[in-house]
Amino acid sequence: MEAGGPLRVGIIGGAGWLGGAIAEAILDAGIAEPQNLSLSYRSERPNRFDRSFWTSDNQALADRSDVIVLSVRPADWPSLNVDAEGKLLISVMAGIRLSALGARHRTGRVVRALPNAATEVRKSFTPWIAAADVREDDRSIIRAIFDACGSQDEVRSEAEIDYLTGLTGSGPAFPALLAEAMMADAISHGLAPEIAKRAVNTLIVGAGRLLEQRDECPAETVQTFLDYRGTTAAAIEEMRAAGFGAAVSRGLSVAFRKSVRMGDAS
């Protein structure tokens, strides 16, 4: 990319759900123009982003891009032979280490990032870490891309990325798990499924909005209800006694260990 020239972005896996969501965020934020966005697909070209460049040749995509986003399943990455020599490479794959990415794709300007499903609604939290060769102007691009997807933070180590794979990389999965349990209990008490679903989904959405607007520590919200000593406090205390916190900790630990194993296998 020439100084002051248009930024050319390529997304390997742009036909996928996450790759497509990142592409949409990039275009909506004006980070790249449609004609300077390249996307790849494996079998069938999607009917979207008609002004952008579509290809099934990942090397052709890399050759016409300044910034390359790797948005493929970690299991598919070993067969991906793309030369990104000297270019900024951003992986959104879980588990794959910076050193492995740099060696395979021949660039030291490598970033590991972990957006989640909420990218689709521009509410993803994306932690990321950069290799030593990543420049300050690269960091500006990285921040712009993931701010367009929601919010972002540069973290200190790959171990933190591995931990956050389970914590935030899971996106809405854990709130949905809580909602599923609440909805099942509501139905077991005789509520119609549609009413139970509406009640629980509205509760989860409302809680998220309150946390976002107040920007307070979740522990403060919990303590407020505990101090009130009402029905909610009784429920919280019973859930804690049943091992709620321990179950969450165990689940996150398993996710962390799996992320580390994925990296070791690469």
Helix content: 40-55%
Largest sheet: 8 strands, mixed
Please indicate the percent range of residues in DSSP E strands (runs of 2 or more): 5-15%
Indicate the overall shape. elongated
Query: If strands are numbered along the chain, what order do they take across the biggest sheet?
Result: 3-2-1-4-5-6-7-8
Low-confidence stretches: none
Helix/strand-derived category reads alpha/beta
Distance between the termini: 31 Å
Characterise the protein shown here.
An eight-stranded mixed beta sheet has the order 3-2-1-4-5-6-7-8, sandwiched between helices. With 266 residues, it is an alpha/beta fold. It is 49% helix and 13% strand. It has ten helices and eight strands. Helix 3 links the parallel strand 5 and strand 6. The two termini are 31 Å apart.
Set out the fold topology.
Elements (H helix, E strand, L loop, with lengths): L8 E4 L4 H12 L8 E4 L12 E3 L2 H6 L3 E4 L17 E4 L6 H8 L4 E4 L10 E7 L5 H13 L1 E5 L3 H10 L5 H16 L4 H22 L3 H11 L2 H11 L2 H22 L1
Parallel strand pairs: 1-2, 1-4, 2-3, 4-5, 5-6, 7-8
Antiparallel strand pairs: 6-7
Helix pairs in contact: 1-4, 5-10, 6-7, 8-9
